[in-house]
Amino acid sequence: MSNPIKKLAGQTAIYGIPSIVGRFLNYLMVPLYIYKFKQTSDYGVVSELYAWVAFLVVFLTFGMETAFFRFIQNAEDKTKVFNNGFLTVILLNTLFFLSLIVFSNPIADTLLYSGHNEYILLLGAVVCVDAISALPLAKLRAEEKAVKFATIQSLSIVVNIGLTLILMLFFFDNNNPEEGVIYIFFANLCASLMKPLFLFKDFLKVKLKFDRRLAKEMVLYALPLMIGGLAGIVNETIDRILLVHRLYEGTDVSLIYAKSQVGIYSANYKLAMLVTILLQAYRFAAEPFFFSQMKNEDKNTIYVRVMNYFIAVVCLVFLVVSVNVDFIKMVFIPNEAYWAGLQVVPILLLANVFLGIYYNQSIWYKLSNHTRFGAYIAIIGAFITFFINFRFIPIYGYLASAWATLIVYGFQMILSYLLGQKYYPIAYNVKRFLMYLGTVIGFYFITVWINLEASSVQQFLVNNTFVVIYLFLIYKIEKPKIRMKIG
Asked: What is the pTM of this model?
């Protein structure tokens, strides 16, 4: 039989191509935004509004992707499951967008964007198109059509990047920053429309036949996931929103300052998102893979080994980026006005390592139908995130946001592990995790201590010597297992 872990790795690579390329190209867009927008606050506008987008995408997809993966496992009619989930999402998005049209002006006022309801409508259209496209894309993943999935996602990315470049380089007047914001959102909308365009056959196949019983079961299963997802987005993006609203003191000057802080924080956050790139690619492949192993007698053995490899890799990414941040900033953040925020990069990198481990563990409550625990964990984390940001942003600014992210993701990782061992035990190798994590953190602090500012070349060589040592360590530990065949 084929090796399921090799299959997971292969599909992760395919699913990851558009994610990695897209995120990398977005990194390359940051210097463009810094160059075209005169003020850091203008980039802060884009970052804050995209934080709201993240909330809406989770709400408007309503956890139906995971519900779809779960319900098709035992369904005789998989098309029926897809139709009911898809119709639920379409109905929700239709009601949302109609409400947005009616209330766009008061919403813009509340978000401190008075007179710019076009921002609200453009982003509303983006999230609705993305949400409606999510289930057909999930269907491709369930059918293991990874190449088609990657192709559609890649085309969307190409349109987004290409159109943004054209508009920002040839049409944007940097004396009118609002124009640039609209161009970025318009390019995003055009890119999102590529997905339904290439998935139109799935749209045409949908039958307007609603099974209330099945839809109710799917909604009840998905509801905790959606609530947990919203709470999770609080942990991921509420900091950018609260930075604006907690630093704003009712004056135009304070509003500009607040959005400037968001711009600096967001630019540096992108460096930490190199771990997130891996997570996104991995999650696309991992969720259907884990469900497909439900009937495998060796499933727990597979889950443990997947976790070992995953932790080894994300710790590697943490080490590579954290010890090379002074060199990476030259490429991705060429404007020194943003360098004040570099101190948050190692903190956020480690936070995303914890987040990745939590995502990997979270399969226990999905497989055991205890999805409410996912919601509980995320909700508790959201309260902690909100409290730390709300209380300490006025004192410490975006540094409070970075530490809040690390504290909450670490807490969620530990809590999920403890609950998982009670309700769906998987014998993870905790000692190995602690060894990998302790090694990379130790290596990072050693490179900070060894300060060779007089010779950046020597510093680079010294820093990356530790990367090579860590790679050798992984190879020696995991080599015997990599060679093993799993039935």
From this structure: 0.77
